[in-house]
């Protein structure tokens, strides 16, 4: 880690990232990975993948990954700083825009929302790719990842069952 204050590094990183996280925190996972693993070296690939898995398994919003990154960097103060930096800027913008909005018949909000859908889907697909690259290191793991992704997309099986099965397969040492 560099010599700058880690709390301020977390605040500046996630504060800026929150403004560009179109589609929520899940869409910003590739950038979080780049910053936490490649730029600042706050975490290893495995630590990041583990933090993401814990964040997804935990109840609550998917922004928990930010909290776990902050905790890895600077403990509880880092967790609080990173979470607030990720949530406050966009929450304040949403609050101000709601105060300033007036009922109108403008088509712009609907057009902007429609235009952001493909962007959000692309960012989430990039998140999936980053996580698959950091976890699927063997051919068996890659095959399992592809099979689970295909099964999840075509069936109505609860993803928690798929995660449990993957965890058991990993625990058994098969993958």
Automatic annotation (TrEMBL):
Chief subcellular location: membrane
Protein topology in the membrane: Multi-pass membrane protein
Localization per record: Cell membrane
Pfam families, A to Z: Chromate_transp
UniProt keyword list: Cell membrane, Membrane, Transmembrane, Transmembrane helix
One Gene Ontology molecular-function label: chromate transmembrane transporter activity
Protein name listed in UniProt: Chromate transporter
Taxonomic source organism: Bradyrhizobium barranii subsp. barranii
């Amino acid at each position: 880690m560099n010599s700058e204050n880690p709390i301020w590094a977390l605040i500046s990183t996630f504060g800026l990232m929150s403004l560009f996280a179109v589609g929520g925190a899940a869409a910003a996972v590739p950038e979080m990975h780049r910053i936490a693993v490649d730029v600042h070296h706050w975490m290893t690939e495995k630590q990041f993948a583990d933090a993401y898995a814990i964040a997804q398994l935990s109840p609550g919003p998917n922004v928990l990954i930010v909290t776990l990154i902050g905790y890895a960097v600077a403990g509880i103060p880092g967790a609080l700083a990173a979470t607030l930096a990720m949530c406050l800027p966009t929450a304040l913008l949403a609050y101000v825009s709601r105060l300033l909005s007036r009922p109108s018949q403008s088509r712009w909000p609907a057009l902007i929302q429609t235009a952001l859908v493909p962007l959000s889907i692309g960012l989430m697909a990039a998140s999936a790719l980053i996580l698959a690259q950091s976890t699927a290191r063997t051919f068996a793991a890659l095959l399992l990842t592809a099979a689970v992704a295909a099964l999840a997309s075509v069936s109505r099986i609860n993803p928690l069952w798929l995660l449990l099965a993957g965890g058991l397969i990993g625990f058994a040492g098969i993958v």
